[in-house]
Amino acid sequence: MLRKLTALTLGAGCLALACAAAATEAPKTAAELGLMQGSPPPADKRVDQGNFMQAPYNRWALQHMRELVPTRAVSRGQGAVSPLEGDNVELGDLEVALASGKRLSVSRWLQESYTDGFLVLRDGKLVYERYFNGQTADTHHQMFSATKSLTGAMLLMLADEGMVDLEKSVDFYLPELKGSAFADASVQQVLDMTVGIRYSEDYTDPDADIWKYGYVFGIGNKPRDYAGPLNIHDYLGTLQKRGQHGKAFHYVTPDTDVLGWVVRRQSGQNLSEFFAERIWSRLGAERDAFFWLDRSATEMAGGGLNLTLRDGGRLGQMILQRGRFNGEQVMPAAVAERLLDKGDPEPFNRLYRDPWYEQIGYAYHDQWWTFNNPHKAVSAIGVHGQFIYIDPVARVVIVKQSSHPQAESESNEVDGPQIMHAIAEQLMGRSG
């Protein structure tokens, strides 16, 4: 995710009138907007593959992905649901002083950031849970790039078993990528997104490479002048090198699809099967999850996971508990501890040279973000406002699912981490 604090703070990409409206009234729900109502819905209210990433259509789409794109289930298995016991704390009135100088309550922030679902766990207890825009506890929600962090975890689990050597080059495992940008990058460099690659992930640029990647997975109309492959495996081979690997963090979604390919190759399973067998079926999840697929039935490792809010909480809690959850060691403790590590800030802002990477972010490692707060909280993050946030010091897990009009917004990317830090501090102050 390309993050520019200056642009976000100035509200780039948001019309002044729309921004003013968002600050004074709750955003309209999908139902209030009349999306997908009627038989058939009016033309301007229909959500389809051509418009579902755009506002306001994403207000409906991000809770209905199985109706729009091909998917594959991640089975929860046959076990009992692991309980999430309640210990309710009213956090809505908590007011946070932000770095911008404004003060914002949690409830107001949830409104302004187009939240669909929001959940807070402290020491494994469910202390706060809210739903908006028609979402319920049973609703699957698109997680976008929060998926990357879980793909990274799967790869590290294979490395822990000796099935992947993180220092070997990608072409050792994927000879199909010889001649591409990834060929001589180490698996670890791909995990940390320090691959020297010619690639643009600027969501505001309609000609950016990210929209070609999106088209491979059925997003929108064919990009201008694009005549490339229509499946992810062939697409990855077209990406070319630019500069030295290992020097600077460069956020590139296809990096994660390379990792997903390595997981498939070394495990002999598709991502859905691997994730279900190793993690999902052992969590006591309430619902199956599912992955978005390309045209050749390959999962979008860089952004295709859909899950319910509470199951996202279980996933984050398992990692916080060093991989132990639901009465068993779901993830190797060494892998979970590595995900919770703060990482190396040295390469983080070399390329972007932007204040977000110094004031909000701290580092990126193994497909996880680290925030620049005293606790060095880590998070999986997805566009339009998706978070699985873990504070290992305060012992807090926060899951946020949203449908913001902007892929990257001040309310989610700038205000959001500050408010989540404040929630964690507040809860830690109540009970130590």
Automatic annotation (TrEMBL):
SUPFAM superfamilies: beta-lactamase/transpeptidase-like
Gene3D superfamilies, sorted: DD-peptidase/beta-lactamase superfamily
Enzyme Commission no: 3.-.-.-
Signal peptide coordinates: 1-23
UniProt GO MF annotations: hydrolase activity
Xref: InterPro entries: Beta-lactam-related, Beta-lactam/transpept-like, Diverse_Enzym_Activities
Keyword Repressor: no
Highest taxon above the source species: Bacteria
Keywords, alphabetical: Hydrolase, Signal
Coiled-coil annotated spans: none
Protein name: Serine hydrolase domain-containing protein
Organism of origin: Microbulbifer taiwanensis
Taxon lineage: Bacteria, Pseudomonadati, Pseudomonadota, Gammaproteobacteria, Cellvibrionales
